[in-house]
Inverse folding.
């Protein structure tokens, strides 16, 4: 039975509320932050290394990303930047290091525990031009034509209605603004065993859609100059796959040509 969008949202809120109380090491020991799908083994399947970036905040790094969206975001001093699914604030603090004192960074998240963690991290910095706002990406409580740049890191794949999400991004960007989003997409169809697992959905895999569908939605919402800046194949270890697939299904999956990818996409309004 397919899980309803509203139930998936509740699942993601619950899962990421749990993640907010865990260490980066615990979060990285699973698919994308959850603890149930990988047992006691440790795999950093998705996340990239932030530690060398200016503005990096270790307390805000929960190891949940699948890329480095600020790498291609073309953020300039004085820009107003929006981070969708801002979590504990890691990308916001990196973006603030680029925008400087004359810019502004807004983080949007709908998980109370994450917002609390982000605000505590913000207090330690003393920054007055970073804020964290509670809101749903599908129904952003933000004014139109406000932001120069929108970024997001491994979050939109968890949003049930991606068309609404990209419509919202278009609405809140200023004319001439742009986005840079790191996310998870598929080439080919995942096995049914993986699709059924709502727990893995909150772990960034089965919430993903086909690459071409993802890029088509962006185009349909009015964006131009769409470019995949970075493409990284994701390999899921056998001891994770075996939780969801039989031995025969695992072999079929590996030889099917199906792939899970982390991509970083940019586009202009």
């Amino acid at each position: 039975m397919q899980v309803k969008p509203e139930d998936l949202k509740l699942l993601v809120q619950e899962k990421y509320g749990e993640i907010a109380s865990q260490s980066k090491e615990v979060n990285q020991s699973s698919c994308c932050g959850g603890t149930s799908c990988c047992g006691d083994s440790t795999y950093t399947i998705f996340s990239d290394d932030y530690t060398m970036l200016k503005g990096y905040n270790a307390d805000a790094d929960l190891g949940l990303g699948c890329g480095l969206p600020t790498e291609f975001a073309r953020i300039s001093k004085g820009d107003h930047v929006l981070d969708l699914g801002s979590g504990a604030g890691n990308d916001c603090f990196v973006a603030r290091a680029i925008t400087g004192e004359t810019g502004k960074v807004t983080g949007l998240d709908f998980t109370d525990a994450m917002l609390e963690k982000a605000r505590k991290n913000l207090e330690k910095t003393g920054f007055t031009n970073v804020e964290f706002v509670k809101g749903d990406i599908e129904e952003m409580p933000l004014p139109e034509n406000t932001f120069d740049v929108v970024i997001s890191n491994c979050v939109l794949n968890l949003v049930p209605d991606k068309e609404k999400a990209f419509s919202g991004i278009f609405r809140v960007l200023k004319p001439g603004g742009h986005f840079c989003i790191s996310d998870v997409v598929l080439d080919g169809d995942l096995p049914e065993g993986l699709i059924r697992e709502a727990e893995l959905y909150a772990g960034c895999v089965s919430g993903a859609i086909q690459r071409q569908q993802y890029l088509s939605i962006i185009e349909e919402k009015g964006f131009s100059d769409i470019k995949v800046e970075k493409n990284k194949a994701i390999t899921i270890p056998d001891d994770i796959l075996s939780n969801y697939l039989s031995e025969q299904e695992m072999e079929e999956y590996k030889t099917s040509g199906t792939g899970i990818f982390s991509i970083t996409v940019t586009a202009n309004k």
About this structure: The first strand starts at residue 80 and ends at 84.
